[in-house]
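Study this chain:
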Amino acid sequence: MSDLRGLIAKLTPEGRTLLMRHLLDAGVAPPPPQDDPVAVVGIGCRFPGGATGPDDYLSLLGDDRDVIGPVPADRWEVRESDGFTVGAFLPDIAGFDAEFFGISPAEAAGMDPQQRLLLEVAWEALEHAALDPDTLRGSKTGVFVGMSSSDYLVAGIERGARVDGYTTTGTPHSTAVGRVSYVLGLRGPCVAVDTACSSSLTAIHLACQSLRSGESNVALAGGVHLIAGAFTGLTLSKWGMLSPTGGCHAFDEAADGFVRGEGCGVVVLKRLSDAQRDGDRILGVVRGSAVNHDGRSNGLTAPSGVAQKEVLASALASARIDPGTVGLIEAHGSGTRLGDPIEFEALDSVYGRGRGRCALGAVKSVVGHLEAAAGVAGFIKAVLSVHSGVIPPNQRFTRWNPEIDAGESRLFVPTESVEWPVDGPRVAGVSAFGFGGTNAHVLVEQPPAHHLVENAPGAVVVPLSGASAEQVRDVAAGLADWLRSSSASLADVAATQGRRGAPRRFRAAVVARDREGALAGLADVRPVAATPPGPGVVFVFPGQGGQWVGMGRRLLAEEPVFAAAIDELGMRSALLGEPHGIDQVQPLLFGVQVALARLWESTGVRPAAVIGHSMGEVAAAVVAGALTPQQGLRVITTRSRLLTRVAGRGSMASLVVSAEEAQELVGGDESVGIAVYASPESVVIAGDTDAVTAIVGKVEAGGGHARLIEVDVASHSPQVDSLLNDLARELAGIVPAAPKVSVYSTVDNNPRRQVVFDAGHWVTNLRAPVRFEQAVAAAAEDGYRVFVEVSPHPVLVHAIGDTAAGLVLPTLRRDEDDTVTFHTHRAELHNHGVVPLPVPAGRVVNTPTTPWRHTRYWLPEATSVRDTHPLLGVHVALPNRGHHAWHARVGLRELPWLTDHRVFDRIVLPGAGYVEIALAAGSVLLDDPFEVR
């Protein structure tokens, strides 16, 4: 057991979090305490008045805007006599980003718009929580959603819309909620709740119970309600429940009914202890809740004051909260002359006495009655209020309903924004009462205090993604607009975007040190499509040539992993100085290469294979695990020290010719030879200066490209022969290990041959030609498509690109900001789908959620006259070949002539009608002529 504790103690905080999640999901960890409060860590919402998120919603609640308006023209034909002509509507309930969720246009059209809206808002809630949906896949994450309307299905039937298989999955409430779990791959409970107007608050109550019992570890809870047809509104109007004056005057003397509204709200919930462990932003805490029913009261739909008092008391008992300390009650507040006095009397009897005042809120006065989503609208308002300490005003309140006696009560209706009216922790109660008698009450408290940690200075990476390149650009544009007016630090923006995870196929990233750099990057994003990365990343270590004064100095100051590797090799002073001569430059290059490789690895980019070019093979051997860093340092210092003996002798030149052409140019001259096989159309020659210069002249005279390379030593040529014995002797004591990753040797004719990095190998490495082209080609043949040149400036990227197809990236570039350049290339690997970005530290802030690219999907057009025979109806697609069905409404409304055919004074469909149905079916399925028997 002590060994196990020791292993756990060595884990990073992230590792311990992942282990605990795994143990909980596997059912082997101890269950959570039953009284653990529940944290609200994310909010997604769409409410009237353009409230497309919690910030917009809070702004709407604080404004004096009237969002009640006429029924949108594209819904149905409105008649004044119907009594349902106004409401609080969302602007675009037909719009949906089907491509983002991988849903076909045909299926999207068959989906109730409530399903579509719920999917988008659930996704937005996870983004607001900065939770990576991929980390929830397969987890015990529950989904609890209140829904009660089936307008889309009813409207489709009334219009004679075509019925198909997507109608079956697109219209039930169960599949609306199930689709959220399906799309996200969630394995927790999935429950559609219909208790009418208390549906969504009941869903939140059930979600909290599921979390406390350990049934769920995360929960999405809320509700959705859209008005896709006139039917329900007409029935409510006939029942006298809708306000004839077009307003919801909660608790006011003008109360005359409610106004219907639309909306969707989803909250992300976790146990408080889990949220604190995971470093989540906590917006509020559910302390307790209760649900009950009116029982056999004054009537099925009449509110019961006794039951309301009981549910309030039960919620307070579960929360262990003194009602006198509560500063806000977000009431059901429907604005009916009967319901408001009953609710107030119940609230006053429980909450009406205490040490301070208590605000009585009713969000229905602002956004109307959202029915199944009404509870979550009030809940979100309460969470935002306890979080901010400011209570938004009610609208449409002038004086108390005369049936309400508020004289001695501490309850008051705020008509303007007010500071929290009672001392102590901010606590709010939320009520929702259902049409069928189900009552719910939830108590929410302000989040616990947390310590702010200052962000370390440096470059940050802000990832962006979308289902298309256009959507990525939309994300960038929205983030730029938000950033211009936000005071959030760039580090917190990067942390929020990074925590959200779940990158879509098209990706981009912005790397910057400051706001100006971020805005410039966001204005110039270049999305790429992520593709499968193959077997992994190949680290390529070049020889000399990439060094520059100042290389790595930013990394030394800002990247601890890089600095630690440099210090391990004792090279800090050399890196901060200006080294000269091959015996100083090559060891420093080696140190920088090893340190850069360690930096890559610390960000999650680990090589599956390595290739070393000339002296670069020393760093490759260290990174592959064949040599220790100190052994590598011994090899490179010995090698470079010996090379000083021949410094200034001989030359090297790069030729843009094939190996065969180069061999012809060299001919039989033994003083010069091919030193590097760089790419199919490029080689490097080395040897006697006169011989090299002569070959360069020949190439140029023939119209080709050739240039002398500025080097101290003509390695890989006869110029170094005098050093080989001493090199072998001085490195004789090195005992290499077997490499831990694949090594493609540039020394051997067979790049795949197992390399032993002993003294003999390093002799061959100095003298033999560098078969770089062959090594890269072999890696490409083995499926590798991602190559990273590990050096302070790219030397080999073009040669790699000329040899192998795929992604080729440098690490740093001469005279550029080291940190920004490194993280830019690191982000490119993420963008191309090679490896995910590490999640940086920082606070979660309200960066914009996904900008949806909506396409209109609405009820399929009514089918043709032939398909909609008045008796046969609409053909229904069935999965079984050869089986057919039709759906038709047969009644006096559709067929008024039926009233003339009666048998014993009962209206009966004539026998000829059945014959006509059979003939109509035959005409659809069979060729003329046909018989019906």
The chain is about 35% helix and 15% strand. The chain has five domains: 31-293+301-445, 461-529, 537-646+715-831, 649-711, 874-925. Residues 461-529 form a domain with the Alpha-Beta Plaits fold (CATH 3.30.70.3290).
